[in-house]
Amino acid sequence: MSKFEFIKVAKVADLPSGAKLRVEYDGDDVGLFNLNGELYAISDICTHDDGPLLGGHMLGDCIVCPRHGAQFNIKTGQQTMPAFAPVPLYEVKIVGEDILIAPK
Ligand code: FES
């Protein structure tokens, strides 16, 4: 369980299967994903050169950075070149109709 406070960022209805959504946690941009009914959240800042990731397309479990093509696994945060560091992950939970996140 995260040591950070969970905050509400979206409604479950906002994120159907296959969708992605940019939300905010304490001023930080976060990408929220529905991958086959499972919800994931990662930082929306590419670790290569700080570009936003959400404008990229999905490739399996990965989002492809639209700037230089690094891929980030939305389940693990792991990266491919040209990025050298994984993206931070967030925990996701559903309470009623709401989606809440907290940094891992
Ligand atoms: S900013 Fe994302 S790959 Fe360069």
Task: Looking at this protein, list some descriptive labels.
about 100 residues, mainly beta, Rieske Iron-sulfur Protein, six-stranded antiparallel sheet, three-stranded antiparallel sheet, 9 strands, about 0% helix, globular, binds FE2/S2 (inorganic) cluster
Explain the overall architecture.
By secondary structure, the protein is mainly β. It has one domain: 3-layer Sandwich (Rieske Iron-sulfur Protein), CATH 2.102.10.10. It is built from no helices and nine strands. The protein has strands at residues 7-11, 20-25, 28-35, 38-43, 58-59, 62-64, 71-73, 89-95, 98-103. A six-stranded antiparallel β-sheet has the order 1-9-8-4-3-2, with no helix packed on it. The chain is globular and about 40 Å long. The protein starts with 6 loop residues before the first strand and ends with a strand. The relative contact order is 0.25. The protein binds FE2/S2 (inorganic) cluster.
